[in-house]
Amino acid sequence: MQISEELHRARVTEKTAERCIPAEERPLFHMTPRTGWMNDPNGLSWYKGEYHLFYQYYPYDTVWGPMHWGHAVTRDLIHWDYRPCALAPDSFPDREGGCFSGGAAELPDGRHLLMYTGCRREKHADGTECDVQTQNLATGDGTDYQKYEGNPVLSELDLPAGASRVDFRDPKIWRDADGSWKCVVANRAEDQTGQLLLFTSADAFHWSYICTLAANHGRYGRMWECPDYFEMDGRSVILVSPQDMEADDQGFHAGNNSMCMIGSCREDGSFREEKIQVLDAGIDFYATQTVLTPDGRRVMLGWMQNWDTVPYRLEKAKWFGQVTVPRELSLRGGHLYQNPVRELEQYRYGRVEREHVRIDAQHPLTDPGLSGRALDLTLTIRPEADCRKVALRFAQGEKHYCEVVYRPGENTLTIDRSHSGAVRDVTNSRTAAVSVRGGELKLRLILDRYSAEVFVNDGESVMTMTFYADRKDDRIAALACGSAEVDLTGYTLKI
Ligand code: FRU
Q1: Do 329 and 403 belong together in one domain?
Q2: I need a labelling partner for 323 at 20 to 30 A (CA). Which of 63, 195, 438, 466 fits?
Q3: Final residue belonging to a domain, choices 315, 343, 371
Q4: Tell me: the pLDDT tens digits for 412-445?
Q5: Which one of 57, 58, 100, 257 would you pick to mutate in the ligand 1 pocket, going by the greatest count of ligand atoms within 8 A of its CB?
Q6: How many C-beta atoms lie closer than 10 Å to residue 483's C-beta?
């Protein structure tokens, strides 16, 4: 296949540059870009016996630049292998801004279809400029992709009145049971805040507008990004990442958030919103993707980063940006639960189990069998009447540590990297409400070299953060102010 100069250059660059990144300088099992910069995961899909994951990619530096689509595959959602860069900004709709986020699906003829946003710069006679965003296609065999000659397939001509052509991006594409194709695309409405537009197609190449699926009306931030829409247990679920939010009492923090909307589908195809939920209450989480696995599970992952915390990074590393552990989604009592995919369990070794251990200020819980920077650890906490806090410390060295802190009096959980050796004044800790059942709180920590994901009460809520503590800092301890009884089960993860 003939490839463009831009794509050729990216492929040569990544092949050479990845040799300068030793495996132990990357996370053990969280996906990173082959080299350079990564933001949103894209096009998560099951195709010809493997999961494919693409990502917003700038292979030439560890900062954002004109977007390419990096590419990796996995059979078990844990162990990833890189494939060559899939898309480069080499055609009219995407030449200046690049190939922005989007989705992927398999066509009936067996080709892999990528649907992405092209971002181009338009120059006006008066000297001003603006971005123009359109939706575009590429087809391929799982390694090489050819952009469709009919691009763009959705442009300003397809937009309803008042919809912005500047902010029109991040299509999620899927095929419905009746064989028709659908895509949902994020857009800025006349009120200058986000809305999600629903389109349909008979062949995935010719599209028309159906309706506005959901609208922000100024309630949750400004523009919305990276939408997803699926059915689960008879309910309709939207995942979306709102920009520029104000902190509120539902648990959203100032800045960019990710949220889940649970509801139902109206006759006209639009969404009836019934419940809003914070997707991840930690520091580093944005821009989700989901896939339906062959055995029927809805699996989600996200960019394990937040735009505002980008300055906090591993200094001198030739990669930047990670993807979260893939998470199985389920609905219970109208609430969305997330848990690490069960495939992770085959990589657990050296079980350590301690039950009914009483801890207090003089007696922390440590275990000689428990240390490391890649662990799957479950701590069940039963606070006693005098208990003011219980902290699970990890990545602990002589001076530094990270921790999650439960405060029973407040029913809050705090995830904190302030003492990890961090030297950037970005958000280094975040606190969220947690609920205690039957007098106990259950925390499952998925720890990798540069990240911690804490699943609370079997996935009722999640708090995620990256951290860049010295790799030698690897001790674990549970400490208390006042007393508590804890159970702990821990495994080392080896991939
Ligand atoms: C979200 C986002 C998307 C866009 C992409 C560009 O992080 O802003 O809306 O497609 O990043 O890289």
Answers
A1: no
A2: 195
A3: 343
A4: 999 999 999 999 899 999 999 999 989 999 999 9
A5: 100
A6: 19
Q: What is the Cα–Cα distance from 403 to 391, expressed in whole angstroms?
A: 6
Calpha distance 251→258 (Å, rounded): 11
Q: Look at residues 495, 237, 493, 211 and name the one whose alpha carbon lies nearest to residue 377.
A: 493
Give the Å distance between the CA of 76 and the centre of ligand 1.
Answer: 27
11 lies in the same domain as 148? yes
CB 379 within 8 A of CB 488: yes
Give me the CATH number covering residue 483: 2.60.120.560
Q: 78: domain range?
A: 5-343
One-character DSSP codes across 326-357 = PEEEEEETTEEEEEE-GGGGGGEEEEEEEEEE
First-last CA distance in the chain: 34
**Phi/psi at 149 (nearest 5 deg)?**
-70, -20
* Helical spans, DSSP H, in 104-203: none
What atom in ligand 1 is closest to the CA of residue 102? 10
Q: Are 374 and 350 in contact (CB under 8 A)?
A: no
Give the ligand 1 atom nearest the CA of 286.
7
491 Cβ contact list (under 8 Å, min separation 6): 348, 349, 350, 351, 352, 375, 376, 377
Cβ of 56 below 6 Å from ligand 1: yes
Of the candidates 282, 220, 218, the residue with the CA atom closest to the CA atom of residue 247: 220
Residues 160 and 277 both lie in one domain: yes
With a cut of 90, say whether residue 1 has pLDDT above it: no
Based on its alpha-carbon atoms, the radius of gyration of the chain, rounded to whole angstroms, reads 23
Residue type, 322: Q
Residue of 54, 187, 226 to mutate, ligand 1, most atoms within 8 A of C-beta: 226
Query: 277-308 pLDDT, tens per residue?
Result: 999 999 999 999 999 999 999 999 999 999 99
What atom in ligand 1 is closest to the CA of residue 117? Answer: 10
Q: Is the pTM of this model over 0.90?
A: yes
Task: Using alpha carbons, select from 120, 148, 119, 153 the residue that is nearest to residue 135.
Answer: 153
